[in-house]
Design a protein that fits this description.
Distance between the termini: 20 Å
Oligomer: single chain
Number of helices: 6
Shape: globular
Number of domains: 1
Strand content: 15-25%
Radius of gyration: 19 Å
Helix content: 40-55%
Number of strands: 7
Strand order of the largest sheet: 5-7-6
Bound molecules: S-adenosylmethionine
C-alpha cells in the first residue's frame, strides 16, 4: 500500500525523471516527470518528503537535502530510505567471493562516474548540518538470500534475492563499462559468477538499508 492509499486526506505528488509510474493510482496521487537535481519549481511546500532508493541517482546530496529542507513546511518531515553499498557479512563467509569483488568495483566505478553508492551513510550528518532536528537513523538488514534461520529474515532474504538478481545486469553494466572500462562481454561473464554467489546460502551477506 502506498502513502496516498493510507492517507486519503493527503495530496501526494510522485516525482521521477522517467515515466515509470503505474497506470492505476489513487485519486489523491499525481505523478510529475521532473529532474530533482534541477531547481525545484513546486508551487507549494510539503509536510512530508519521502525519498527512496535514490543512491546512485543523486550526484549532490547536500544540495538535494537542502532543497528538501527549503521546501518542507515548519514542523514537517523528511524520510530518506536507501541501500548502502557494500553488502556486509555476519562472518568471514564473504571473503574472496565474487560478491565482494563486484561490490568493491561498483563503488569504484560509480565514483568514477561522479556518484557515491554508499551515500546513505552520510545522510544523517547532512540532515543535521542543514538544520533538521531529531534526526533518527535506523539500519535494517536485508539478507541477500534465504540464508537466515529466522522465518521473517528468510522471507526478507527471498524478496531481496529476487530484487538483487533481477536488477544485477541493469545496475552493473553502465558502471562496469563506462566507469571501469570493461567490455560488455567481460561484465556478462563476471556477473554469472556474482549470481552464483548471490544464490549461495553459505555466504552470509546482507544489505544495510
Ligand atoms: C532505484 S529507482 C527508485 C524509484 C523509486 N524512488 C522507488 O523507490 O521505487 C531510482 C529512480 O530515480 C530516478 N531518477 C534518477 N535521477 C533522477 C533525478 N535527477 N530526478 C528525478 N528522478 C531521478 C530514476 O528514473 C529511477 O526511477
Amino acid at each position: 500500500m502506498c502513502i496516498a492509499d493510507s492517507h486519503p486526506e493527503a495530496e501526494v505528488i510522485g516525482v521521477d525523471l522517467s515515466p515509470i509510474q503505474p497506470n492505476f493510482v489513487p485519486p489523491n496521487l499525481q505523478f510529475q516527470i521532473d529532474d530533482i537535481e534541477k531547481e525545484w519549481t513546486f508551487s507549494r511546500n510539503f509536510d512530508f518528503i519521502f525519498s527512496r532508493m535514490m543512491t546512485g541517482a543523486i550526484t549532490d546530496w547536500k544540495t538535494y537535502i537542502q532543497n528538501c529542507f527549503d521546501h518542507t513546511e515548519p514542523g514537517g518531515y523528511l524520510e530518506v530510505q536507501d541501500i548502502c553499498y557494500p553488502p556486509r557479512y555476519i562472518d568471514e563467509s564473504g571473503k574472496g567471493t565474487s560478491i565482494e569483488k563486484w561490490a568493491a568495483n561498483m563503488i569504484d566505478g560509480a565514483s568514477k562516474l561522479g556518484v557515491a553508492i554508499d551515500s546513505a551513510k552520510g545522510v544523517k550528518k547532512i540532515m543535521e548540518d542543514i538544520g533538521y532536528l531529531d534526526v533518527v537513523e535506523t539500519v535494517y538488514q536485508w539478507p541477500m538470500n534465504t540464508w537466515p534461520a529466522d522465518k521473517k529474515m528468510k522471507e526478507i532474504g527471498l524478496w531481496a534475492h529476487h530484487a538483487g538478481i533481477s536488477n544485477l545486469d541493469g545496475l552493473s553494466m553502465v558502471i562496469y563499462t563506462h566507469g571501469l572500462g570493461w567490455s560488455p562481454e567481460a561484465v556478462t561473464l563476471f556477473l554469472a559468477d556474482v549470481r552464483k554467489d548471490m544464490k549461495n546460502s553459505k555466504i552470509h551477506a546482507y544489505w544495510p538499508m
